[in-house]
Amino acid sequence: MSEPTHDVIIIGAGPAGASLAIQLGRAGFHVALIDKKAFPRHKACGEFMSPECLPMLENLGMRAQIAKLGAREVKGIRLSGYGKVSTGRYAQVGKVVAPFAHGYALRRELFDLAMVETAAAEAAVEFLATHRFKALIFAGEGKVIGARVLDPDGTERQLRAAFTIAADGMNSRVARSLGVRRELPWLRKFALVTRYQGTKDLETAEVHFFPGGYFACAPVDAGLLSMNLVLDQEELARPRESWDAFLAEYLALAPDLASRLRPATRVDPLRGIGPLACRTTQQTFHGAALLGDSCGYVDPVTGEGIYFALRGAELLSADLQRALHMKNYDRGMLRGYRRARRREFQPRMAFAKLLQRGMKRPLLTRAVLGLLEDRPKLADLLVAITGDYVPVGCLLKPSVWRHALARSSWAAT
Ligand SMILES: Cc1cc2nc3c(=O)[nH]c(=O)nc-3n(C[C@H](O)[C@H](O)[C@H](O)COP(=O)(O)OP(=O)(O)OC[C@H]3O[C@@H](n4cnc5c(N)ncnc54)[C@H](O)[C@@H]3O)c2cc1C
Known about the structure:
413 residues; 13 helices; globular
């Protein structure tokens, strides 16, 4: 059998793959970081990072750099629709204080490029752009020992390593080739993404709900507004003259947003992506693991995907380093990652799915938006949970509900 070429192969250089490469490279492990695209590249995204991402960027030594690139400080989320409006802020909830009173919003072209350049600057990291994953290499008993990739000329290259990590996003070919990727048919959604220049300056992100979908917007660097229109699959079946007319039709359902966009110019094409939701049945294997969106994805409404990518990389990096030091590449060595995912991510995913089920019922959505309008602290609580610094489990505490349902803001208690 050929000798390993690297300690770890990471397929996909989005926030999950790049942040894992930075951590492993700094610990002295020899990493191949592979992406099918050249950077900077476009990635469909609302481009908002929750407050809990900021300490992780700090740990990577990148927070100041991200701020310098023009990341906008996003102080909360404004929720509107069905004639109701509320704004949740990243406030203290009970005893839990937000790590920062804001998240960040930055174009993914800039954010992902900064991450990849930081990874590639590590002596132990070999960054292979425009290299496409083709297939896994297996030894006996289903053990993964590397990957076959195609270089920019289409020539096949075999890379072998102790661990091969899938960080190739929600349509993960690696997860498919391991046979663990499943669709979530009840949650088939599609998104159209674009950006505008010339809107009024916003200090919060915004979600505008209407029956069948929502708009999510975030003010990003360079005075741009990043906008996503997310729709149930059935909505796409409607006849349309053009995509521009299609967008205009939905903007008419969100008059609050439409008026904000009136003086603005759309500066990016409309790009489509979907279906958005999937899950996986297993995330760790002998010699391999799934990370970030390749593990599964629900819907962008809570804006937590970048948090899951960065936090997942922190957790997996710890287990990989231990396994590499012990020269034991069995699945059992990744149990810390598996358990932490179950403890930290599963409740958040379950909460996101619950929100999705609720959003399918316009009367319920309207009632919840009305309640949030009436009870500012409830809006803060919702935004704190989706801001990733308050655990979903706090919803089981009667005292949290007592405070959240009081008619004043948290600051007044
Ligand atoms: C419409 C929309 C809006 C969103 N809005 C937000 C938001 O506001 N905030 C938030 O936190 N999250 C948001 N998300 C989710 C967020 O974009 C993802 O969760 C996040 O990018 C996941 O990071 P990742 O590194 O796992 O995957 P990705 O960022 O998808 O990176 C995967 C990388 O793998 C590469 N790749 C794919 N296939 C191959 C292959 N065969 N070979 C080699 N390389 C390959 C790709 O080129 C890509 O660079 C949104 C998602 C969507 C779809």
